[in-house]
Amino acid sequence: MGVVIKAFRTPLGCYVYDRGSHTIIRVPETQYPLFLKLEAGKADGETADILEEYRAKGVLKENPLKEIRHPAAQTLPYYLEHRVQKITLQLTQSCNLRCDYCTYSGKYHQRAHGGGRMSFETIKKSIDYAMRRSDGVEDLNIGFYGGEPLLEFENLKKAVEYVSEKYHDRKVNYTITTNGTLLNDEMACFLSAHDFSVLVSLDGPKELHDRNRVFANGEGSFDRIMDNLRYIKGKYPGFFQKISFNTVVPPGSDYRCIEHFFSANALIEANRLSKTTVSEFSRKDEVYYDDRYFITYQYQTFKILMAALGFYDKKKISPLFSADFVEIQRFYDHLGESPVCASCAHPGGPCIPGARRPMIDIDGNLFPCERVSERSEAMKIGHIDTGCDRKKAEKLLNIGKLTQKECINCWNFVNCGLCASAADDGTALTREKKLSYCEGGKRRTLNIMRSICLLHEYQYDFQEDFFNEEDCVISDTEK
Question: What is the rounded CA–CA span in Å between residue 145 and residue 157?
Answer without folding.
Answer: 14
